[in-house]
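Box 3.1 A note on notation
Throughout this textbook, protein chains are presented in two layers. The first layer is the amino acid sequence; the second is a token string describing backbone geometry. Keep the layers aligned when reading.
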Amino acid sequence: MKEEAPSSWAEAATAPSRYRTLQRKIVALIAVAALLPLFSLAFINYYEHQHALTAQVQEPLRALVGKTKHSFELYLTERISAINFIASAYSFEQLADKTALNRIFQIMSQAFTGFVDISLIDDSGKLISYVGPYNLKDINYTEQKWFQQVLLRGSYISDVFLGFRQFPHVVVAVRHNNPDGRSWIVRATLDTAQFENIIASMGLEPGSDAFLTNRKGVLQTESRQYGHVLEPLSFSLPPANYEANVYDFADPAGGQYFLALSQIANTDFVLVAMKPRPSLLKAWYTVRLDMVAVFVAGVCVIFAGVFAATRMIIQRLQESDAQRLAAIHQMEHTQRLSSIGRLAAGVAHEINNPLAIINEKAGLLRDLLELRPDFPDKERFAKQIDAILRSVDRCRGITHRMLGFAKRMDVRIEVLDLNAAITETIGFLEREAQYRNVTIERRLAPDLPQIPSDYGQIQQVVLNILNNALAAVADGGTIAVSTWDEGERVGIAVADNGCGMSEETVKHIFEPFFTTKKEKGTGLGMSITYGIVKRLGGDIHIQSALGKGTTVTIFLPKHPPEEQGGSL
């Protein structure tokens, strides 16, 4: 047999299926809490081994690059010191003598490997004397970059370049200033093969690569994977400094590497070494069996305790819900009587009598004014009296509507005009809306059919929703009230452009005592509204977004509800 749907939200809240669902959620939550240690253990284990393996690979690579960098610096320092000694120890005339310069070069080549030639250049850039394998004669180096740098710095080690030789080489040059004010430059060329020898001594494993580049990313030595001397790299390097740093790096081909680099002092050279990154997952250790056994046993104990504790919690929760629902019904009834008393009895009895007196006095003033045709400012006083009488009539209309609302306190189903009930309810709040410059738009369907329902309860529902909308919109805002025919139902929508609500707030909006008005609200308005709509056989939905406003939609049946219930 098909189970009947709960007749109200209260019955839905205390349905057995709700408690079964709650029990399943508690068990699922505990399951997550029980499995979390295992996943945490796996993650920590993976992280620790990844960190250890990374350090195991990176530290030797960093040390190797640092050691090789010092070898380069030592090699270049020795060569520039030798050139500096020659420039200082010999006079210009001795160096200009090709025979003497040749003897000096022979001695220097025996002491230091890597020199290709040596030359003397005056301060105007003219080649004075040269010893070496090339036919260099009457060359002027004024426009050469290395010449400008040595004049500026006093000593200079160039990048690898072609120059007049059209062959890759490195220039080491020193400028000597004689006490008599004369200066000259001793220049030597280094064979870049010595750079290759230093890199080869690193003993790189297969798949690794090491090379020199300058700060612009141009290769200064051969690279196994990325090109030849003086070819630009196809990728950008991380920033380099004088300490060896290691980075995770992916080249344009998708290769994963550990990349170490360091700047060589007093040059534009950057030493780069690349080592393929090993698969760190290969170092993953299997979780120990005894830890798994302890975990499984612990989970079983937890689940046994959870089922026992949950049964007791659900029983206590059912008892608490029954007490809470009884209190809510009592407060619902009290709130309704209180609001009706304030709006009807208070307004009608306290305001109608003064209004009658005001009306009579204003009428008397009008009669006296008619008897005095020569009364000064007669027209002005007549306009003021008319304004008083119009205000009195307006107040009478308000109290009349309030008394009509109060007379419908008893629950009874009748065929009613929904548009008329909504229009009358809007009238209760028109004054506040005008004071705050809030526009209440009426988009009521003119051909809306009459429906069987409770006039007073519908007014209370619309009044609660309109009050919430007025609280949500800022001064100058807009509230739109719409009705329409929808087959077996009629629809009512109250839309505002106020502050809106978050998804989390919408989820709890119909819960008793849930309020967004802090100390100003009781949290019962929307729960009472929900109960009334369900009792009348209808549905209520809310769509809202923060900063975009809220739309409350109500659907009421065109046929009498199966249950008309008692008073709220």
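The CA atoms of residues 52 and 488 lie 71 Å apart. The chain has three domains: 1-287, 312-407, 410-568.
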